[in-house]
Design brief:
about 25% helix, alpha/beta, 7-stranded mixed sheet, globular, 5 helices, 7 strands
């Protein structure tokens, strides 16, 4: 498979994707310029070093409103970063249309993110780093995708969705949406 990962910051999921696509596949890694410059540029250096060490990975630094994906992708992953897009001036409608165009028919767009209170939309995205699930669904289906999976596999009913995701005790314990969208075949 040929896949793209939006916001590889720290390469947590990237090694899994590189392994999953195998030596015949490829992972396109994308970070925003501010992320790549984070920690005196060490994030960008780490992303490039990861790509250099893995023949099936390529690292890109680009503002997501200006992103250009290769055609014929099998999947695009955006894990725990969709909520940040508005706060860093990404035109999500433009970006989502670019994802749609790059995917082959039947291709998947996978979003995992920290849930905010139902109906809150983008309200909490820049303060507590959470987003209303309906905002993600509305924006991505507006780009032409169908919602294929709305999973509660990462649900946490103990999380009342009001705490900052980086608060003590919250890291790794947030109630999360796992959404898989599909480009029509």
């Amino acid at each position: 498979d040929h896949v793209a990962e939006i916001s590889t910051f720290g390469q947590y999921y990237t090694p899994m994707l590189v392994e999953a696509v195998g030596s015949a596949g490829k992972v396109e890694m994308y970070d925003m310029p501010y992320l790549a410059a984070f920690s005196d540029g060490n994030v960008g250096k780490a992303g490039q070093a990861f790509a250099d060490a893995n023949e099936n990975a390529e690292y890109h630094i680009v503002h997501y409103s200006d992103i250009s994906f290769p055609a014929g992708l099998d999947a695009v992953y955006n894990v725990l970063y969709y909520h940040d897009l508005e706060g860093v001036d990404v035109d999500t409608a433009v970006m989502n249309r670019k994802v749609f165009s790059a995917l082959k028919p039947g291709g998947k767009y996978v979003i995992v993110d920290h849930l905010a209170e139902d109906g809150s939309g983008w309200r909490d995205s820049t303060t507590i780093h959470r987003i209303g699930k309906e905002a993600i669904i509305d924006e991505i289906t507006a780009a032409g995708f169908s919602l294929l999976v709305d999973s509660d596999i990462l649900a946490n009913p103990e999380d009342d969705r009001s705490a900052m995701v980086f608060s003590p005790g919250m890291r790794g314990g947030t109630d999360r949406a796992v959404l898989i969208f599909q480009k029509p075949r």
